[in-house]
């Protein structure tokens, strides 16, 4: 007997099965048929939700990026913390990224492009929260930030090569980047008029 599920629940099951298989076997070794079997549905139904493996992977990666970002958002949104405390907490969390569910997949040999995609998706999710944190900290200190959007884009995307390197997270490199951020933030703040 066929089980009828809400479309969003079914979609989530497909994405979970796909990401689990990609992590276990690698992207190239997984077919849409494998994913449909793992999700307990027909291949046709799988294609109904995602018309290609590439689109399914992109959606699964986006869900995983949201999962990863959700660990950082409470830190960024905590009004009791200074910006320096938020950055310290974020870098400490980044140093522990090996505990994330699919860390091995994204750091496996041959997965560099996928890791970069994840980094961009994660940066996009974090961007408005980092921007709000930078602006709130400047206001709290009676300062303004010169081009806060450019600054935040540079902060997030300037770390791409370091954060997606095969040896990431490298604690020494993270400490250097953390120091660079202090210098960069200080150079872009001015007393409020």
Write the layout of secondary structure elements.
Layout: H1 7-25, H2 32-39, H3 43-49, H4 53-76, H5 83-95, H6 103-107, H7 112-140, E1 143-145, H8 148-157, H9 160-163, H10 171-187, E2 189-191
Antiparallel strand pairs: 1-2
Helix pairs in contact: 1-2, 1-4, 2-3, 4-5, 4-7, 5-10, 7-8
General description of the model:
It is a single chain. The protein is mainly alpha-helical and 193 residues long. The chain has 10 helices and 2 strands; from the N terminus they run αααααααβαααβ. It has helices at residues 7-25, 32-39, 43-49, 53-76, 83-95, 103-107, 112-140, 148-157, 160-163, 171-187, and strands spanning 143-145, 189-191. The protein is elongated and about 65 Å long.
Task: Determine the structural class based on helices, strands and strand pairing.
Answer: mainly alpha
* Helix content range: over 70%
Spatially, the strands of the biggest sheet line up as 1-2
Shape: elongated
Task: Please describe the biggest sheet, giving its number of strands, its sense, and whether it closes into a barrel.
Answer: 2 strands, antiparallel
Order of helices and strands: HHHHHHHEHHHE
Cα-atom radius of gyration: 20 Å
Low-confidence stretches: none
Give the N-terminus to C-terminus distance in angstroms: 70 Å
Mean pLDDT: 91
**What is the number of strand segments?**
2
Q: What's the number of helices?
A: 10
What proportion strand? under 5%
